[in-house]
Design a protein that fits this description.
Elements: E1 4-5, H1 8-11, E2 20-32, E3 38-43, E4 51-55, E5 74-83, E6 91-102, H2 118-123, H3 132-154, E7 158-159, E8 165-166, E9 178-179, E10 189-190, E11 193-194, E12 205-207, H4 212-222, E13 224-232, E14 245-254, H5 258-279, H6 281-291, H7 295-304, E15 308-311, H8 312-321, H9 338-348, E16 353-359, E17 375-383, E18 387-395, H10 399-408, H11 417-424, E19 430-436, H12 437-445
Parallel strand pairs: 1-2, 4-6, 7-13, 15-16
Antiparallel strand pairs: 2-3, 2-5, 3-4, 5-6, 8-12, 9-12, 10-11, 13-14, 14-19, 16-17, 17-18, 18-19
The structure holds one RNA strand.
Length: about 475
RNA sequence: UCCCCUGUAGCUCAGUCGGCAGAGCAGCGGACUGUUAAUCCGCGUGUCGGAGGUUCGAGCCCUCCCGGGGGAGCCA
């Protein structure tokens, strides 16, 4: 009879005491005891903590394998789970056998039994998931993703897979990556320009910067929908908050007005945080202790308090009366700078704040014009440390106003014929927003750089791995 | 794209006024009756990011290039 293979997580539970089981994973550290036996910490990624394996000197391969076992090596161990007499773990395994699957050369394996800088670990992006920090980040990211589906499914939203390739070159959210099969060394030309009619789709095509417009089409049929997928921005952004390829969640709901949108965003953020605190307690304790002290209390506060709602106009007044010295002056009609947003969320509110009703000239054409004729029904959710985590709006559902807004910003309505059709046939008020998953992971874990919350970050000049 | 900082051993860093390249950790060898980043003793480590220049002499000063980081803008 073969021994049952269980996870390290399970082996660490007191329920497992007395069971003889098998565990498979990677060696995090080995400590040789004076008594002629060794402690081996095995991690299999199922949890933050390791299983301490006691490898007795009586093992037939003790000298040959155990004493030469190196950090990073993969092992299969069998033995009985016992209560641990030492500090620091509840259970441990008394190994009856230990099999080495693959050694990691002690001199060549980059990861050492010490802290590495995150910058150095980015050079080893294929190995960094084996570290405490990246294991924890990955599990939290997983939980946030799962919680996203739980939340929207629970609220009756339907997932919609919007296209990643689009022919619309003006979705309005920045530079796009061109998608082409034209040969770069001999591009067919017509009248001095590339002949895009010879390209794969017979026209120019790009990677999407947002699934919103297509999402609106489905919301105006299914009612409540959400998308969850990768998004691409070819901006030359070099910051700790921007990626060229990132994951975005975009709910869109028919018959939702701005206030419904804001309440949805608040319920969603709170649900994700509470699920993560509940299911990733060990990982979150690590972030609290080693990455950002005070993190858990701050997140708990988010759950306990209703979000502060503040109109753009109110925000400008608060900033002007703050007495704070800003590098950029605050004036109504000008977009808020990072320093302004930081002041509002980190000092004035000390938690998430929803700003809404922005001047129409600094926002996108599709946002619904308010009755004052000066502002649009936009909303941004700002959080301490990260800044804008959600951007959304109620959409303009009135055909004539939408067309005049498009013309005002120089867009050709005929290019958006299908988007305008949604207003021609059975138009309804509707609203939605986009949440950057990586920014949510940053906010939840306290990780300072967005490149450290996605497995293989793509940024300008960096497409390794 | 702009501003600032930075690049020295496998890793983290020090290197004074321009004068023989040096610590900790990791690694390797040894010691040690249950360890928790184990501890103690011993040993070795180099294209000083690259190319020019100044100088009797450059890790250090100058120019250009490359990489990394932080901030700003754009936004999720």
């Amino acid at each position: 009879m073969t021994t049952q293979w269980i996870s390290v997580t399970e082996a660490r539970k007191t329920d497992s005491i007395g069971r003889t089981v098998q565990v498979r994973g990677w060696v995090r550290t080995r400590r040789d005891s004076k008594g002629g036996f060794s402690f081996i910490e095995v991690n299999d990624g199922s949890s933050f903590g390791n299983l301490q394996v006691i490898a007795d000197g009586q093992l037939t391969n003790y000298e040959a394998d155990v004493l030469t076992l190196t950090v990073g090596s993969s092992v299969v161990v069998e033995g009985e789970i016992k209560g641990s007499t030492g500090q620091g773990q509840v259970t441990e395994m008394a190994a009856k056998s230990l099999r080495v699957m693959g050694l990691a050369s002690a001199t060549d394996y980059p990861l050492q039994k010490k802290q590495h800088t995150f910058e150095k670990l980015r050079e080893w992006a294929h190995l960094r998931p084996r570290t405490n920090t990246f294991g924890a980040v990955t599990r939290v990211r997983d939980r946030l993703s799962y919680a996203t589906h739980q939340f929207f499914q629970g609220e009756g939203f339907v997932i919609v897979h919007t296209p990643l390739i689009t022919a619309s070159d003006c979705e309005g959210a920045g530079q796009m990556f061109r998608v082409t099969t034209l040969p770069l060394d001999k591009i067919p030309m017509v009248e001095g320009k590339p002949d895009v009619s010879k390209d794969f789709f017979g026209k120019s095509s790009y990677l999407t910067v947002s699934g919103q417009l297509e999402g609106e089409a489905y919301a105006c049929a299914l009612g409540k929908i959400y998308t969850f997928g990768p998004t691409f921005r070819a901006e030359n952004s070099n910051t700790s908050r921007h990626l060229s390829e990132f994951w975005m969640i975009e709910p869109e709901a028919a018959f939702f007005e701005l206030i419904d949108n804001m309440q949805l965003a608040e319920r969603y953020l709170k649900f994700m945080i509470s699920e993560t605190l509940k299911h990733c307690a060990e990982d979150m304790d690590f972030f609290e202790k080693r990455i950002q002290p005070g993190l858990l209390a701050a997140l708990q506060l988010v759950l306990d308090k209703p979000f502060v709602h503040m109109s753009y106009t109110e925000a400008v007044e608060i900033l002007q009366k703050s007495g704070e010295k800003f590098d950029y002056p605050v004036a109504w009609g000008v977009d808020l700078q990072s320093e302004h947003e930081r002041y509002l969320t980190e000092k004035h509110v000390q938690g998430p704040v929803i700003l809404y009703n922005y001047p129409k000239d600094i926002k996108s054409f599709y946002m619904r014009l308010n009755d004052d004729g000066k502002t649009v029904a936009a909303m941004d959710v700002l959080v301490p440390g990260v800044g804008e985590i959600i951007g959304g709006s109620q959409r303009e559902e009135r055909l004539d106003i939408l067309i005049s807004r498009m013309e005002a910003v120089g867009l050709k309505p005929e290019d958006y014929w299908w988007y305008l059709d949604l207003r021609r046939f059975g138009s309804v008020p509707h609203a939605g927003f986009g949440l950057g998953l990586e920014r949510m992971v940053q906010y939840t874990t306290g990780m300072a750089n967005i490149r450290d919350v996605i497995p293989f970050p793509r940024t300008p000049g960096n497409c390794d791995f």
